[in-house]
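Reviewers of the previous submission asked for a worked example of the structure-prediction workflow described in the proposal, so we include one complete record here. The input consisted solely of the amino acid sequence. No template or homolog information was supplied to the procedure at any stage.
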Amino acid sequence: MVPRETQILDAAIEVLGTRGTRHLTHRAVDAEAGLPLGSTSNRFRTREALLAGVLGRVLEREIETWGRLAGVALPLAPDGFATAVAALVRELAGSGRVLTLARYAIFVEAATQPALQRQIAEALERLTAWATPIVAALGSTDPARHLRMLLSLIDGMLANQLANPDPAFDPHAAISALLRGILSP
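From that input alone, the workflow returned the following structure tokens.
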């Protein structure tokens, strides 16, 4: 991705994550990026093209975040894995809050846009290909299904924390309980 596109898309993420989808306009992104009017529309002609670009950038940044989990010596024992995933979830709800809110905003848009749905499905396939062997190494007898359960738990915890922030938020216990349940013989 060229630097100007990255600048535009990061500004669009900021608009989405701080102001919501109603405020995502080419003009608002230009202002957020500190670029001349028309810069965003020159790169992303339609709102749909801008949303697709933003989704791609959100996924790219989230993959970088998940990549830090891969930097941990994997595979871990279940409790070590729960600790690493809990740290990731805390990051996505804390310093990554704007990025996560932007992802949720795009997911709402995807409910009515098949092109965004396809983009999300492709990203989920990549995440599944990467993470399923890790869940299998933890001892799962059905790693693909168990990964989906873990991702659903993560999304639910993030949605709740973003909508109703709890200063004492600690996802570790829920992640550990899920792992104990799915990894029990």
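The chain is about 75% helix and 0% strand. We consider this example representative of the routine output the project will generate in years two and three.
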